[in-house]
Each structure stands twice: as C-alpha cells, then as structure tokens.
Hints:
alpha+beta, eight-stranded antiparallel β-barrel, 8 strands, disordered N terminus
Amino acid sequence: xxxxxxxxxxxxxxxxxxxxxxxxxADALVGTWKAEVDMTELISGAMGAxxxxxxxxxxxxxxxxxxxxSDGTFSMTLDEASIDAALNSVLQSVKDGTIAMLEAQIxxxxxxxxxEEMLAASGTxxxxxxxxxxxxxxxxxxxxxxxxxxxxxxxxxxxDGKLFLSAGLDYLPDPECYEVYTLEGNVLTLVEYxxxxxxxxxxxxxxxxxxxxA
Length: 214
C-alpha cells in the first residue's frame, strides 16, 4: 500500500511538471490589492471650456480594489466611500467655480452688485441655485453608475511581466491585450496598458500602484 501511494505521488509530480502545474508568476498575485487612483486631470479635461476656466479640482481620488484568486479568476471594484468623497469634492469645486463665474460676469458688465443681488434680480437666490445644481448632478445616481460600470471580473494570467485579463468569466485573456507590470514585495505597479482596443484616454492614470492588503 505504501509503495502504491508513493507511485501515485510521483505520478502526480510528473503530471504537474509536464502540464505546467501552477504558474509561479500568476500565483504571486493572489490576494487583495488596493490603489488610490487620481482622477483629477481626467475629470477636469471632461469639463466644458467655460466651466474649466473657473473650476479648480484637486484630490479627486478613487480607491480601486483588485482581487486575484488562486483559481485564476479576478474581480475589480471601486470603493463606494471613496467615490462619494470624490464626487462631493467635485460638487463643491463646481459650486465655488459657479460663484466665481458669476462674479466675473458682473465685473465684465461693469455692474456694482453682489452675486446674491444679481440672482435676486433674476427671481432666485444662491441657495436655490446650488440646490438645483446638486440635483442636476445627482451624486447618488452618478456614484452608482460609476461603480457599476467599473466593476468587472474574469480570468487572468501573468507571464514575463505582462498581466492578461479577460473581459468576463466566460472568456480567456486576449494575448494581444495586457498590462505591463512590476511586482516588488507588496507593491504591484501597472506601468501601462498595451492593446489594440486602447484609445489612449486613460494613459494619464498610469502608473497605478497597488498595495497588497490581504
């Protein structure tokens, strides 16, 4: 019986060797990783030219969570609290920028009045204007949309400093699309994205530094 068990163990080892049992490079990624993604420039660039002149954004940070599992699957999510904080920061900047824009308009037309007086002449007030702006932005709905669209899962592999991610659990990673990465201790850095489907829109976000948290 012992001899039989030993033969089975040796056979299992041989099978692993010939079948490429496990992937040491991919195995090193197993765990939970978090990155603070600075979206300030990307969101600033999406603003219209009129508002961009008066709105100054800063520290618009999203927390991204990557989970690599030992079965070769991964998931990506955005931390809800970080999205709420970032969007509230954007809202406050837009409010401040709106007031600055109105003040500039008053100065341009040579009027001697405050923003509150100008709004009163138009039949409204600053609190109402800000409330309408906040309702139009609909932060809860926007946050839910961002989180939903960013969430993803699929299969992954890693080879020669390239991280391959599939677009779903039913698909294998595309060998032509990958993240160039480095791994030093508990810091995973996504250096750049390479792929035929890249339009360069997110190039400014790289490099992305993830810290291992679990």
